[in-house]
Amino acid sequence: MIFRKSILRIVVCLFIGLCLSACGLNTASMIPDLKPISEGRISQSVTVADVTGARKVPWGGPAFISNEQFKDVLIATLIKSQIFKAVDSQRGDLTLNATIREQEQFGFLEARVHLIVEYRFVNKDDGRVVWQETYISEYDFASIIGASRTIGANEGAVRDNVSLLIDGIIKRWPRSVSRITN
User: Fold this and answer.
1) Which residue positions in the chain have pLDDT lower than 50?
2) Nearest residue to 84 via CA among 58, 121, 125
3) 10 Å Cβ neighbour count for 100?
4) CB-based contacts of 8, cutoff 8 Å, min separation 6
5) Beta-strand runs (E) in the chain
6) Collapsing DSSP states into helix, strand and coil, what is residue 179?
7) How many angstroms separate the CA atoms of 40 and 182, rounded?
8) Cα distance between residue 124 and residue 90, in whole Å
9) Cα-based angle 113, 115, 118 (whole degrees, multiple of 5)
10) What distance in Å separates the CA atoms of residue 101 and residue 117, rounded to the nearest whole number?
11) Fewer CB within 10 A of the terminal residue: the chain, N end or C end?
12) pLDDT of 99-145, one tens digit each?
């Protein structure tokens, strides 16, 4: 009798864990922990265009990020970094186009997500590409609960990829684009 109750408790705990982890990707946990930059902010505002290229998630398959979620993460990350004069939904001087080139998940007990994203900043006035780079990120996440593995690995890969974007802008943004000095 005690053995059956113990088994039942374990099954209930696993079921609750599965239900809680199956809630999907959490956009807030994909935003990197950044400190706002204090010097060398870019003197232009940016608009984030709709993201393209996300994988369609088959029913019961891995929880890959959607185009809409990735756009939300980009906007929140750019606002948090304070790297641009402003992040404007409609009237930015520049438009950020992001294309997810590849989303793959590997592994069984430890999930690994491989993510490739191309970022392109375009001048709204003349359509000229101001800056363009592609970043590859991979993230491993281990858990006994399958949905947690998938979610954790995908959130980590996105967080690392947008961190690479911010780092790339800070280090390699063209000198021809003016910056605000403090």
Assistant:
1) 6, 8, 11-22
2) 121
3) 21
4) none
5) 41-48, 84-87, 94-106, 110-123, 129-142, 179-180
6) strand
7) 7
8) 11
9) 175
10) 5
11) N
12) 999 998 887 778 888 999 999 999 999 999 999 999 999 998 877 67
Distance CA 137, CA 32 (A): 13
What domains appear along the chain, each with residue ranges and CATH number? 2-180 (3.40.50.10610)
What is the three-class DSSP state of 114?
Answer: strand
The whole-number pLDDT of residue 2 equals 66
Place of tokens 């970022």: 119
Q: Which residue from 160, 171, 118 is spatially nearest to 138, judged by alpha carbons?
A: 160
Distance between CA 49 and CA 54 in Å, rounded?
14
Please state, in angstroms and rounded to a whole number, the distance separating the CA atoms of residues 60 and 41.
43
Residue 119: how many other CB atoms lie within 10 Å: 20
Q: What is the pTM of this model?
A: 0.81
